[in-house]
Specification:
The chain is of the alpha+beta class. It is built from three helices and six strands; from the N terminus they run αββααββββ. It has a six-stranded mixed β-sheet, with helices on one face.
Length: about 120
């Protein structure tokens, strides 16, 4: 397995692997952009995660590649979810501020999947 070079991104992955979502290293003004749209703010992000927790937990995340460039980190990984059966390749760009994540831009194709909240 490839070791992540950014402590903040490593913590992000570990929180998702373990289900310890209260310790996600994200800023209060965190933004997350994905094929589902923009989520603006840590509180809103955690609200959506809580409503869809069963679909978000149970992940195996296997890092394939990473690029580190100062405060920007790009990680490509395979995601397999034991709860939903969903498997996909994901590429995420993380913008960091110190030891927290300011924003993530996530790229993937999930077909007809839908997140509510």
């Amino acid at each position: 397995m490839i070791k992540l070079k950014s402590p903040a991104v490593e913590q992000w992955f570990e929180c998702w692997r373990s289900g310890d979502l209260d310790n996600l290293p994200i800023a209060d003004d965190f933004t997350h952009t994905s094929p589902f749209g923009l989520i603006d703010g840590k509180a809103r992000y955690l609200e959506i995660v809580a409503k869809n927790k069963q679909d978000f937990l149970g992940n195996t995340l296997t890092v394939i590649k990473q690029i580190n460039d100062g405060n920007s980190v790009c990680v490509q990984f395979e995601q397999s979810n034991a709860n939903t059966g969903l498997e996909m390749t994901v590429c995420e760009w993380y913008e960091l501020e110190g030891d927290i994540i300011k924003s993530i831009r996530s790229f993937y194709n999930v077909g007809n999947a839908e997140i509510t909240g």
